[in-house]
Amino acid sequence: MNDRDSELIEGMLTEKGFQIVDDAEKADIALFNTCSVRQHAEDRVIGNLQKLKSRRKKDPNFRIGILGCMAKRHGEMLFKEYPQIDIVVGPSNIYDIPDLIARSTGSEKILAVDKEKRPKKKAAGDSRSGIFSAFVNIMYGCDNFCSYCIVPYVRGREVSRPKKDIVDEVKHLVDKGFKEITLLGQNVNSYGKGLSGKVTFPHLLEAINKVKDLERIRFTTSHPKDADKALFRAIRDLDKVCEHIHLPLQSGSDKMLDLMNRKYKYGDYKEKADQLKEMVPGVGISTDLIVGFPSAKESDFKATYKAMKEVEFNSAFIFKYSPRPPAESSCLVDDVKEAVKKKRNNDLLSLQKKISHQKNRSMIGTEQEVLAEGKSRMSDKELIGRTRNNTPCVFKAGEDLIGKLVKVKIKGTSPTTLKGEIV
Ligand code: SF4
User: Fold this and answer.
1) Of all atoms in ligand 1, which is nearest to the CA of residue 223?
2) Residue 322 neighbours by CB under 8 Å, 6+ apart
3) Phi-psi region of 27 (alpha: psi -120 to 50; beta: other; left: phi over 0)
4) Yes or no: is domain 367-422 CATH 3.40.640.10?
5) What pLDDT was estimated at residue 106?
6) Which fold has domain 133-358?
7) Atom of ligand 1 nearest to the CA of 149
8) Residues 248-284: pLDDT tens digits?
């Protein structure tokens, strides 16, 4: 989401004549597009802000802006704590950024965090950081209020973009040579709420699947309570939709899921994952898990450990809980000790490593379609890309294949990356 917002901001600003420079020291204005999802993300922004403090003091024309979730979360307080900041803009005010920058002079402080919903504007500017793979927002905000999550407070309520605007944006990207698009939403499965006529996420996938010369469709994120057979059918039947789903489980303990306000039980999740695997053989399932949620006992952790073994995720992002006021769980005592969180985090990481390795081994001998994304970091002679089920894969090939879909026979694997040969 933030990557795409940064592209949008870059597009709007370059349209107005701004240039991106690669060194903050050379910039006339430094903008931080921030994330508030964990304390660690905010701490990094603060560290970067401190580095620019003396530059701002010496140069009254130098501007510093805080954009995104941290701006919405802390608002005016940011000016008090960090007087070097000139502009604070929340995620729903994103389209005002060029005007706000134009207005920012001298010591005036500009605060724009008032909008609760992102306007349904078409994407402004046309900046994309990739050349064959692009993000496309299909909706903004979230109505789910999971108790640990700050997103509904900082990104506002859910707004779906009209289907026609999305399909037009995809066509435009394909005309420019993009081959793969990733549809973005906090919960893509509730796409269509508030739009006229009955339009669902599978309908949207169907429409995008018809876009000529588009090769691949990915999407993220799906809330397990809303992921259903219609979605699984779309993954199975629509040829451009890749066989991968990011389905955050968060915990294997029903007690924790209830405290997290996730609105499903582990049994429901498992049933859906089994159904999907049956309908779409070889599908990749990735997930998010939180360790150390308030009051989580060893037995709750064991339930998550067991769930990880049973579902056999292809990959997992594991997070140590940190309270994010005003999210509801910030009122609960953060009573799991840091050392315990760390241990649980490490235990899940090492289990996932084994499972991922096992999953990857089962692909040895198969032929996979890979979109060559660029040179591998390990060798100049190798390219790296992802299979349709989202597993990274390296293979020997020349740079001329970057951006192309290639058939690769899998010959070996590490826990994270497949190794193949072009067929
Ligand atoms: S679904 Fe839950 S975790 Fe995801 S963005 Fe919405 S509130 Fe946050």
Assistant:
1) 1
2) 38, 39, 40, 334
3) beta
4) no
5) 81
6) pyruvate-formate lyase- activating enzyme (3.80.30)
7) 8
8) 999 999 999 999 999 999 999 999 999 999 999 999 9
Read off the tokens for 370.
């890979």
Any idea where the domains of the chain sit in the sequence? Answer: 2-112, 133-358, 367-422
Q: Could you tell me the sign of the dihedral formed by the alpha carbons of 262, 263, 264, 265, in that order?
A: positive
Q: Could you tell me which residues come within 8 angstroms of residue 49 by beta carbon, excluding any fewer than 6 positions away?
A: 32, 64, 66, 82, 84, 85
Task: Answer whether 149 contacts ligand 1 (Cβ < 6 A).
Answer: yes
CB-count exposure of residue 206 (10 Å: 0-12, 13-18, 19+): middle
pLDDT tens digits along 131-144:
899 999 999 999 99
Nearest CA to ligand 1 atom 2: 146
119 pLDDT higher than 80:
no
Q: What is the pTM of this model?
A: 0.91
Q: Which residue is it, tokens 């339009």?
A: 199
Helix/strand/coil (H, E, C) string of 201-262?
HHHHHHHHHCCCCCCEEEEECCCCCCCCHHHHHHHHHCCCECCEEECCCECCCHHHHHHCCC
What average pLDDT does the chain have? 94
Which parts of 352-417 are beta strand (E)? 367-375, 382-387, 392-396, 405-413
Whole-number pLDDT of residue 150: 93
Strands 87-89 and 110-112: parallel
Q: How far apart are CA 123 and CA 173, in angstroms?
A: 12
145 lines ligand 1 (CB under 6 A): yes
pLDDT tier for residue 1 given thresholds of 50, 70 and 90: confident
pLDDT for the residue 117: 78
CATH 3.30.2000.10 for domain 2-112, yes or no, is no
Write the single-letter amino acid at 353: K
